[in-house]
Amino acid sequence: MDKSMSSIRNAVLYVRSSSSRLDAFRSSIEKEVDDCKRICVLDVPTRWNSTYIMLEIALELRKAFDRLKDDEDSKYTSYFDEDEEAFEEDGEEPDDFSVDLSAIRSRASRKRVGPPNAAYWEKAVVFVKFLKVFYNVTLSVSATNHPTSPKAFHDIVSIHVEIEDLFCQLVDNHDVTQKILFQMAQKMRVKYQKYFGKLGDINQLLLVALVLDPRYKIRYFENVCKKMLNMEDLVIKKKSAELKELVVSLTDLYAVALPS
After folding, report:
1. Which neighbouring-strand residues pair with 55?
2. CB 51 within 8 A of CB 131
3. Burial status of residue 116 (CB atoms within 10 A of its CB: 0-12, 13-18, 19 or more)
4. Angle at Cα 199 formed by Cα 196 and Cα 200, nearest 5°?
5. Segment holding 110, helix H or strand E
6. pLDDT per position as a tens digit, 42-76
7. Tell me: the pLDDT tens digits for 123-158?
8. What is the DSSP string of 22-81?
9. Which of 40, 8, 48, 6 shows the shortest CA–CA distance to 135?
């Protein structure tokens, strides 16, 4: 985890750790942020959507956090002088899980990262901009009040385009923040390729839902494959024929199932 996000997470953790600290933070919000009813939330480190929400709200409340840091009577800054426990890996974990992991790990103490400074906040702005795309896609495909299956293919393609565009922009960039984003893009590209790298890996009913939507149909599917996924014409033609055959087969199956 990058230090900028760790520092913001620690700041949020401080605010959320007791009711008195939360009240003091609300007071800072009232003085520094106009007409803001939001309050910081702690994320789940393994869920990027929650990290996006944490960073997005924290950026909105940045002035309130800075006020805590500048307050001489605040315990906020001293909180970051305390030690936090961490694990330092001495080597790879063994395949035999019966081995006591404490034998290959040692406890270490280190200062908490933070409080977030100007450079950390600027990095957070970049991360939020990048993660917003994935957050919006998640909201789109997990909606419950309107059909989502015709939109799923669009969302999958939009993730592909976002990752590839970011990857191309950052490949020769030597800025520290951009390097971190490049590493994130690499990992996301590997995950994407694993689950959606080939059209055959995608649930084919999502493609059926796309072409059954009167706004799109087969021709639109072919255009997306060519212009956004950069597929070869012969591959597109083959996949289009397979998809059309699948739609016809499902239609025939539905017709047979109808009561006479």
Report:
1. none
2. yes
3. buried
4. 100
5. strand 105-111
6. 888 778 788 889 999 999 999 989 888 877 567 88
7. 888 888 878 877 887 777 666 666 667 777 888 888
8. HHHHHHHHHHHSTT---------TT-HHHHHHHHHHHHHTHHHHHHHHH-TT-SHHHHTT
9. 48
Pair 31, 137: CB distance under 8 Å: no
Q: Which residue in this structure is represented by tokens 């906020």?
A: 76
DSSP letter for 87, please: E
Amino acid at position 131, single letter? L
Which is nearest to 167 in space by CA: 150, 181, 154? Answer: 181
Place of tokens 């592909």: 160
- Selection from 180, 190, 183, 175 nearest residue 6 by Cα: 180
Q: Which contiguous run of DSSP H or E holds residue 181?
A: helix 176-196
Closest listed residue to residue 199, CA positions, set 233, 227, 235, 164: 235
Taking the whole predicted model, whether its pTM rises above 0.70 is answered as no
Q: What is the rounded distance in angstroms from the CA atom of residue 209 to the CA atom of residue 233? A: 23
Structure tokens at 75: 């315990």
Answer whether the bond into residue 147 is a cis peptide, omega within 30°: no
Residue with tokens 């315990």: 75
Q: Which of 104-108, 230-234, 238-242 has the lowest mean pLDDT?
A: 104-108
- Who's near 126: CB < 8 A, 6+ residues apart? 177, 178, 181
Cα separation, 78 vs 71, in Å, equals 11
> Which of 229, 223, 2, 7 is closest to 130 using CA atoms?
2
Q: How many residues does the chain have?
A: 260
Q: How many Cα atoms are found within 13 Å in the side-chain-facing hemisphere of 82?
A: 9
